[in-house]
Specification:
The structure holds three protein chains of three kinds.
Chain A lengths: L12 H4 L2 H19 L37 E3 L14 H5 L5 E7 L11 E9 L8 H5 L5 E3 L14 E2 L1 H8 L14
Antiparallel strand pairs in A: 1-4, 2-3, 3-5
Chain B lengths: L2 H37 L28 H11 L10 H17 L7 E6 L2 E5 L7 H9 L2 H11 L3 H24 L1 H7 L4 H11 L7 E2 L2 E2 L3 H6 L3 H22 L11 H4 L9 H26 L9 H7 L4 H29 L7 H62 L6
Antiparallel strand pairs in B: 1-2, 3-4
Helix pairs in contact in B: 1-2, 1-12, 1-14, 2-12, 3-5, 3-12, 5-6, 6-10, 6-15, 7-15, 10-12, 10-15, 12-14
Chain C lengths: L5 H4 L3 H7 L2 E6 L2 E6 L4 H7 L23 E7 L18 E3 L4 E2 L9 E4 L3 H16 L15 H9 L17 E2 L4 E3 L9 H9 L5 E4 L6 E4 L11 H6 L5 E3 L12 E6 L8 E7 L2 E7 L12 H4 L15 E4 L2 E4 L2 H13 L6 E4 L6 H14 L4 E2 L20 H8 L8 H9 L5 E5 L11 H6 L2 E5 L5 H5 L2 E2 L10 E4 L4 E5 L12 H12 L9 H11 L16 E2 L8 H11 L1
Parallel strand pairs in C: 1-6, 17-18, 17-19, 19-20, 20-21
Antiparallel strand pairs in C: 1-2, 3-4, 3-5, 3-6, 7-8, 8-11, 9-10, 12-13, 13-14, 15-16, 15-21, 22-23, 23-24
The chains are: A alpha+beta, B mainly alpha, C alpha+beta.
Chain lengths: ~190, ~425, ~575
Amino acid sequence: MAVIKLKRPKLSWYEHLYLPAIIKGLLITFKHAVISVFGKATGSKELASSGLGVTMQYPEQKWDEHLPEYYRGIPALVTDEQGRERCVSCQLCEFICPPKAITIAPGELKSDDEWAKVEKAPKAFDIDMIRCIYCGMCEEVCPEQAIFLRQDYAMTGTTRAEMVNDKDRLYQLGGVREGLINKWNEVK
Amino acid sequence: MDWVPLIITGIKVFFFTFVVILPLIAYSTYAERRVCAIMQDRVGPNRVGIPLTLLGFKKDLSFFGLLQPLADGLKGLFKQDLTPGHVRKSFYWMAPALTAIPAFITVCVIPFGSNVNLFGHDVKLVIADIGAGPLFVFAIASLSVYGITLAGWSSNSKYPFFGGVRSCAQMISYEISLGLSIIPVLMVFGKLNLTDIVTHQSEKGWLLLPLWNEHGSIFSGDYWAHCGPQWLLLLPLGISFIVFTTSIFAETNRMPFDLPECETELVGGYHTEYSSMKFALFFMGEYAAMIVGSAVIVTIFFGGWSLGFGLDSALLQTGEGAWKWFAGFIHLGVFLAKTIGFIIFFIWVRWTVPRLRYDQLMKLGWVVFFELALFNIFIAALIIAAPHIGPLLTLFVGVPILLALAAIMYFITKSVESKHKVNIT
Amino acid sequence: MADSAPATADKLPKVLAAEKGMVNVQIDGTWIQVPRGTRMIEACKQAEQEVPHYCYHTKLSSPGNCRMCLVQMGMPSRPAPGHHISFGDDGFQKIGWMPRPVISCANTVAENMGIRTSGALVEECRNGVMEFLLINHPLDCPICDQAGECSLQEFSVDHGRGSSRFEEVKVKKPKNVEIGPRIRLDDERCIMCSRCIRFMDEVVDDPVLGFIDRGTHTKLTVHPGRQLDSNYSLNTVDICPVGALTSNDFRFQMRVWFLKETKSIDVNCGTGCNTVIWTRGNEVFRITPRENNDVNSCWIPDSHRLNFHYLHAETRLDAPMIRKGQNHENADWFDAIAKAAEGLKGHQRGEVAIIGSGRQTNEELYLLKRLAETLETDLLTLVPRFEESDGRLVSADRNPNTNGAKLLWATDDPYAKLDAIREGVSGRKIKAIVVFYEDLLGAAAFKATDLEKLELLVSNHLLPNGTAKASHVVMPGAGFAEKRGSMVNITGRLQRLNQAILPPEGVMDDWEIIRDLVAALDHNEPARHLIEDVFTEIVDDVEELEELTLSKIGDLGIQVTETGETIPLIETERGEIVG
């Protein structure tokens, strides 16, 4: 990488006074404040501002329909259209999770299970939402397309235990996801 | 012994501290947050009001969030008060009080208004009408540095300690320019009593707005006949005002001089290890200092409680009985309005000007303001002396001496600076 | 070099090497000397150049069927007729590189040989071999237990292609087959390295495994009507480079990348196999053997490696108890030790007996001796546990530290007094017993009615048992994975146990219990804060251990005495190498 040495600009005596520049700055902020008070701030219309600045008043107003496709909300486990739980408890998400929010107890599928071929499924799968930082590493690392970050963002609880999503709740949140690669299906 | 003055003083202390200054502190935090929010296209606190839904009503009354300071105060009181195990307890506990108390004490010399007739007594709207007003303010206000330094030291932690040391150095540096910058003003007034200074201004025009004097306003000929060097004095007084205001910013640790609590470098600065009400006391101390600073600036440079334009004398002369009683409170209102205006200016500056680097701060204090304030005294002195010594002496002796002084100061500064110059690329 | 050894300056390097029975080999441009007859792959290992391999294993024969260890080899070219052999300035002949690679595992080194473990040819060969191996490999790493310690994964990253050109359907083979009571086989994952087959044949001498079918349909299978049920079967799981053979016990329990490895030793018999304890948090997940060519080679019996689950038993004692009437009540350690000490003080000398265990560490045995001295009793014994040796690694003495007791107690038979104590108890001569780590109703063969005659029974256990039930004071102790200490195995080798996990809450380490008991009886005892303090005292006491410390013992142990006993498997292995 090239190092570019910048020269400090030589200031004229007028600039050296600094005061005019400070006054100019004060005027800019003042102008901004006036615009903001009258609800004319840039982007206030697009952002559905409440009339002061560009801010939207949550929870009366919500931005849900504008959330981008890649929004990273609560992580959840999914089943596919065949009703198979996608997670095989490979524990890669547990390994990659930067705040160590995920805890998995791996388990073995029973031999009479429809998907006994997969052999493995989580016995327990807990995500501690107090720890989760919504980084999406789990989704990225998952080799089975089993965990996805959803668009939900409002997760509240009054106790620590309530903030831990267990396996049932994760599947309930994740629901069915279609169009994933079904690599465990028999090749015809 | 006459108990009445004592009781009246008690009432004044209570009134000015608990009815005027404390709510002002509370609401300047609110103003700070609202103004900053507006400048940044946000809304700011607008929720806390009367929670009527708790009582079964359909909607809460929010009052634009005006009860926010109350909620903040309650939070401060009810939060867990953590005292880390590694601190020097006695100093650690003392420090917040040492920061807050001086700011409250300085309130006592501020003239809030003209006289009020209370129970047949002519009551001055100032707690202690002493003859050393500004000096008293400087003396007491600079004590708050002990609080900050002790807080930084007793926390027994690196960042607070840095904050404390920075604060100490900064206070000492700006104390000098603060004191020197006010000398031209005092030379103009010839007295130190703040009440007298305000009265003087109400009669002869505000220091920075000499638009009238006892002979009429700027539009009458009489004004010009009696105005003297007032307009010429605006040069040194303007410099005084800038240096004084900036130094007050520095003294109160306000942005752009808030290096003692500079978050980017020092986590939280001297109050990193504090929590709950002890932290709130630091906060209160800072805002109280800001309010007193505004009040002092208003008193010295903008006529204190005076309405201006000769209206004061009219107000005071209508004089007897009920009207006079109102006059005091009108003046009180005027004074508060001006002070609040200045508080908003403080907030405005905070959200406009970025923080200085520490070497810039030191350079500004020692190399720029110190010399400027010193030189300013000579300018003011020459202007005041000119009518007495005659134009010849002024032009051929006074001005050359002034210029020579300026040159000497400039070269000394330059040589010292180049000797210590650090090459920053 | 030449200045310091002028006498050898005129000798050629090959002569110098030959004098020591070595040969000169150039590996990746560097000349080294290795013993004559070394396999090329071992020579490369000595030169710190990694040669990837699957089928080769140090302790097994080399079939050379994985082709992964291909390297480029060169020998000095034969001089043309009429020419003489010429040596370069460095004393070596010029190497003529062969155009085709050779497998390094099945060839031995020769004088003036050159080996290249990298380069375009070698890289391309490895790349091709990897691609062939992966053709029928299912790539089900997410559910494969080997993931994380799989050679196929590692070499695929280092030498593989990254994507597959194979578009056809992979061959189907049996999956999830129970080929033994402890082992599951997944034939699709098998890469036909035959390590397991050779292990069962050459080391265990129980050749139940073999390949059937040909080409891509080759399968590993167990002999019809037989099972892979040898007591050494789980070693095949360890040596399997992929996830074809998995242990039922460890299967799907935890991914290996979460596990912490602690080097320790096995405590199930006198051999003291070197082990690695794999833990996560405070839980042991598996135990695998660790190579020590003086103790256990690379192997460990299944019965020993699986014997750790009791550490996590639900019934594990987790607080000291004092008997009140027929029941026990939880107490705190101070009270329990005070109660035991008080009871012991109240008895005459000769009325108190101390029964230790050959499963205790040297430090604990030493402190037991101190306890006996403090109580002025000579009734100090271990409980013998002799069974038959299996002719490989399981020794006849199932106590791991009999020799430690012999050294520390300076006796030839640490079991001698047990009979006397047993009789003393039934004859009511002995009224108080302190017993550590042993169930008196088990191997010690006490009668339950006899134990009831005792006025005081202080015992230390991990799990509840008959002795604990009869005890007046029960002091729960730490298991083998939970403590640090040393033991002496049957050949007289001092080895070290390391702490892999913490004992359960409320449990003290055994040496601390005895220390506190001794200290409660005699206030003049020296302060022992660390187990190292105890070891220092032992070193002062026992001349064989002179100048040793716990850390000096090292991972592989130190021979401290000669007992004349040997480990059969090691003898066999040495015999093969010599032969």
